[in-house]
Amino acid sequence: MKKEKFEELLESIRQGGDILKGKAKPKRAFHVKHPNVFLIRKQLKLSQAQFATLIGINIATLRNWEQGRRKPQGPAKVLLRVAALHPEILPEVA
Description:
Helices cover about 60% and strands about 0% of the residues. It has 6 helices and no strands.
């Protein structure tokens, strides 16, 4: 590796460390909105039990999402986005 590239990489690592320690702010940030589970379910005209069964989760998890105690993560978040954008395909994949 050329010295110039190595120094550039080293500086990047130092900047990352400063951000993690709170000494610097990141130059850019990504903010992902969490899906509104309640509205998605209401648009589908399903009860909590029906919706939880349809997407394969425990009803307690659904209630926690709807009441804001927890937020959907990972694949569940993606599935909810699909449900919001293309609700007609949910019965086909369930």
